[in-house]
């Protein structure tokens, strides 16, 4: 199940807003169509080889399409390997965007694509405290607080409120 599936099951249709993007990094926020509520903020670090192997699909991603949806629509197998999962108190920049001071679900995930499962990117996902995240953290390590703080700094610099 894609994170977009989880969000849409709970909040209805969503869309991805690209807040920042260059050749290696991308910051997105996922919002509801109905209320513009921010459900997710993610920092994607693309792998150069993965981008090259899946250049056509990556082009759709670079134009603003959700990664999961782009690979699904292209019929490419898409595998999420969650490396870390947990709930953390987030820095103020996140709290302002999520309009909440409660702990939020944070995942660190590697994305592998195609029959040969080629590494495509690493994603640090932060989800609104309002999200009911269905996955268990039993088999994962705790997300890196340092990475969350790095993302907050990058988010504030690249896409200020």
Taken in chain order, the helices and strands follow as HEEEHHHEHEEH
Shape annotation: globular
Output the strand order for the largest sheet.
Answer: 1-2-3-6-5-4
Low-confidence stretches: none
- Report the C-alpha radius of gyration, rounded: 15 Å
**Strand element count:** 6
State the end-to-end distance.
31 Å
Strand content: 25-35%
- Kindly state the percentage of residues in helix: 25-40%
The average pLDDT is: 90
Structural class based on helices, strands and sheet pairing: alpha+beta
Question: DSSP helix count?
Answer: 6
Largest sheet: 6 strands, antiparallel
Would you mind describing this structure in some detail?
The protein is 32% helix and 35% strand. Strands 1-2-3-6-5-4 form a 6-stranded antiparallel β-sheet. The protein has 6 helices and 6 strands, in the order αβββαααβαββα. It has helices at residues 3-11, 48-53, 55-62, 67-73, 92-98, 145-158; strands at residues 14-21, 25-32, 38-46, 78-88, 104-113, 118-127.
Notable characteristics:
single chain; 161 residues; alpha+beta; six-stranded antiparallel beta sheet; 35% strand
Summarize the structure.
The protein contains six helices and six strands. The chain is an alpha+beta fold and 161 residues long.
List the helices and strands and how they pair.
Blueprint: H1 3-11, E1 14-21, E2 25-32, E3 38-46, H2 48-53, H3 55-62, H4 67-73, E4 78-88, H5 92-98, E5 104-113, E6 118-127, H6 145-158
Antiparallel strand pairs: 1-2, 2-3, 3-6, 4-5, 5-6
